[in-house]
Design brief:
- The complex is a heterodimer of chains A (291) and B (419).
- Chain A is mainly α.
- In chain A, 75% of the residues lie in helices and 3% in strands.
- By secondary structure, chain B is α/β, with parallel strands linked by helices.
- Chain B contains 14 helices and 14 strands.
- In chain B, a hairpin with a 2-residue loop joins strand 11 and strand 12.
- The chains are: A mainly alpha (291), B alpha/beta (419).
- At the A-B interface, helix 1 and helix 10 of A face helix 9 and helix 10 of B.
Chain lengths: 291, 419
């Protein structure tokens, strides 16, 4: 009984982790940016979505859409206000760009978090489920919403796979991740590719934020934790490796769920962090990393 | 040309005249009336962005407005100086120091978090500034006053101690839940200073009330996924979940509802004491029972209903439990200043110890030097006994004490027990 419960709950949370982490890793793979304002962008989507659904009376679907758009807008702002100026600055030495990007996005994330806490308070908000009701799977009571979230995450990840592997834009992105200089020499505009990556990223992070709000609830205080969990999943899977991140999301999701059920809910994040330390120690390139 | 010069000359003359007149006024006023005395400042240190804490500053402002509308205190206006402590104990201590040294407040009302109140308490003694917490619950606060009266006597515990909150929940269970054929419970509390004495009393008084305690779960307030906890409680076949939650509230409630956990939640759920909880949970609060200070439409004294209505009118939501107590405590401090004939802290403390004030939460008296809970609010029938509400269709319905209750307990359909 508990085993089945762990299987179901772990699957839902892992799928959500995967959705949240896949954009994060794609961004690093293609443009070399580790966006530490990731959690804050998810929080923006969740809070704006909740606000639109409730206060603006747009209902749960309208709220979800507005939330995703807010996530996209936050991603664009991050790119245009923080990331691009650092990438283009002549005053920052090339080899230090990554450190500046880490610091810049980290501080930006904190700014977003504090501003949103001032507007919305640090109390968690929850979106109404997209679909209500309860399904009983072999005796385990499972909200339909949880099942739908798992399915939706996989559909979106599938669409992303198609986009990357089957469309010209996706192939350019792949090429940019392998050899950006070669791509520029062939006459492709890198900044357009970057913009596309940020667009995909914004939609994915926004979607993950809104779904998390309807699954467990989100508060501004979660921003740091969300960034940390995406970061550990991505490092575990291999930086920039999309399939590695998917596997890592499930490893982390199930490890957490098993810990919460069988040991103690309080220790939930601990084993995944221990695993992360071990991976960094013995296999620094991550599970499927190539660097 | 000439017209415009004439008009500008006229304007200049008018200005000069106004200046002379103004000067005359400032000269005249002090002669005709005594100089207005500076306002009496009262510091409010609260959690502006937390549900239970946000009510504190708002209610204090309302209290000050009411006192000023009735002529102030000793002919002086009351001014509240509000500090947001961001739910942090260290920021609260800094705010307290600033309140004392820069803003020269006469007293401080602060926080619903026990860790914060416990951090301020020694500073209240060192700086000799009377301090009341309107919402913290830990029994440690009054224990310090009891054990070292001369050092800590400036601190008052303006809300029920955890032990009394637990006792009121047991009393409620005995009167209302046990008769519904509930026999067993699991205590589920967040890990915090206020729940240690709360849980200790729960484990003692729940069996006496008729509920066998099957398990005692303490969880980290950072918990976001409550499914494993609910799953465990359900596996233990408990009839009731006895809650001790204040830092968390929305997430366990929404998950309890979305997952149709078939067990009633009864206890202290501080966030559920304010009306915004319904919106925050999208209505998933339906059926939740919590202890609180007072409830809309229920009178614990002549001020309860007018205050609740005025608060709702001004801020859109009903006050949390700490809002009610803050409002009363501002009046208690004002009365103490009146009795003491000024803001001398020792005289104020002596006056506050004599408090016998009927406020929004009932008749408020503080336990004396020789009582176990020195300077905490006295609990009992005819004094402050708290009140229980259940969320029903978007409204907080008072269900206990029996003489105040306006409605019957009704659980949502997914709750199996108690019936």
């Amino acid at each position: 009984m508990t085993a089945l419960q762990i299987l179901i709950d772990g699957f839902a949370i892992s799928a959500l982790y995967a959705l949240a982490a896949v954009g994060f890793t794609l961004m690093f793979g293609v443009s070399g940016v580790l966006n530490l304002s990731h959690g804050a962008i998810m929080v923006v989507a969740a809070l704006v979505g909740w606000w639109a659904a409730g206060t603006l009376n747009l209902g749960v679907y309208g709220g979800t859409l507005v939330g995703i758009l807010a996530g996209l807008a936050a991603a664009y702002l991050t790119y245009f206000i923080v990331v691009r100026p650092i990438q283009r600055s002549r005053k920052i030495p090339r080899e230090e760009t990554e450190i500046f990007l880490l610091t810049g996005t980290l501080l930006w994330g904190i700014m977003i978090q504090v501003a949103f806490a001032a507007i919305f308070s640090d109390n968690p908000v929850t979106m109404r489920p997209l679909i209500g009701g309860i399904a009983t799977i072999a005796g385990v009571r499972t909200p339909w919403n949880e099942i739908m979230i798992a399915v939706l995450c996989w559909v979106v990840i599938g669409l992303l796979w198609l986009l990357i592997n089957r469309t010209p834009a996706g192939k350019q992105m792949l090429a940019a991740s392998i050899n950006p200089r070669g791509l520029t020499l062939l006459g492709f505009d890198l900044s357009r590719i970057y913009l596309l990556v940020w667009t995909i990223y914004g939609v994915l992070a926004g979607g993950a934020g809104v779904l998390l709000a309807s699954f467990l609830g989100v508060s501004t205080a979660n921003a740091g934790q969300l960034t940390a969990s995406a970061f550990s999943i991505v490092v575990l899977g291999g930086l920039g490796n999309v399939s590695g991140s998917l596997i890592a999301a499930f490893v982390v999701g199930y490890l957490e769920t098993i810990t919460a059920y069988l040991i103690a809910p309080t220790l939930r994040p601990v084993p995944a962090l221990i695993l992360l330390v071990l991976v960094i120690y013995f296999r620094p390139q991550g599970l499927l990393g190539r660097r | 040309m000439t017209g415009s010069t004439a008009s500008s000359r006229l304007a200049r003359r008018a200005l000069a005249a106004a200046g002379v007149l103004g000067l005359g006024l400032t000269l005249v006023v002090p002669c005709s009336a005594p100089a207005a005395e500076p306002p009496i400042k009262i510091g409010i240190i609260a959690e502006a962005s937390a549900v239970a804490g946000a009510s504190i500053a708002r209610a204090a402002q309302m209290g000050a407005d009411d006192i000023n509308a009735h002529g102030g205190v000793l002919g002086r206006q009351v001014e509240v100086v509000i500090y947001d402590n961001h739910s942090s104990a260290s920021e609260s201590v800094r705010a307290f120091q600033r309140a004392a040294s820069e803003d020269h407040v006469a007293a401080v009302i602060g926080s619903y978090i026990s860790e914060v109140a416990l951090a301020i308490e020694p500073w209240s003694g060192r700086l000799k500034i009377p301090f009341i917490t309107p919402g913290a619950a830990s029994t440690e606060i009054s224990r310090h006053v009891h054990e070292d009266y001369n050092t800590y006597k400036y601190t008052f515990h303006g809300w029920l101690t955890s032990a009394f909150i637990a006792q009121s929940i047991c009393d409620f269970d005995h009167d209302m839940i046990v008769p519904m054929h509930a026999k067993t419970t699991v205590v589920m509390s967040e890990d915090a200073a206020w729940t240690t004495p709360l849980d200790a009393r729960f484990l003692e008084c729940l069996p006496k009330a008729g509920l066998k305690v099957l398990d005692h779960i303490r969880f980290n307030p950072d918990t976001t996924d409550f499914t494993p906890i609910f799953n465990k409680i359900e596996g233990e076949h408990a009839d009731v979940i006895t809650t001790g939650i204040s830092h968390v509230g929305v997430q366990p409630t929404v998950q309890w509802h979305d997952q149709h956990v078939p067990i009633a939640m009864v206890g202290q759920s501080s966030q559920a004491t304010t009306s915004s909880f319904w919106k925050d949970t999208n209505g998933d609060a339906e059926g939740v029972i919590t202890a609180t200070a007072a409830a809309p439409g229920v009178s614990f004294g002549p001020q309860t209903i007018p205050f609740t209505n005025a608060y709702e009118k001004r801020f859109g939501d009903s006050p949390s439990y700490a809002g009610y107590s803050t409002y009363d405590e501002l009046h208690i401090i004002a009365d103490a200043i009146k009795k003491a004939g000024g803001t001398d802290p020792d005289k104020m403390v002596a006056a506050m110890e004599q408090t016998d004030y009927v406020g929004t939460i009932g008749r408020i008296k503080f336990y004396g030097k020789n009582d176990q809970y020195t300077h905490a609010i006295e609990y009992g029938p005819g004094l402050v006994s708290g009140c229980f509400i259940q969320w029903q269709k978007g409204k907080q319905v008072a269900i206990w004490p029996k003489d105040k209750s306006l409605g019957k307990i009704e659980f949502p359909a997914f709750i199996k027990t108690p019936r």
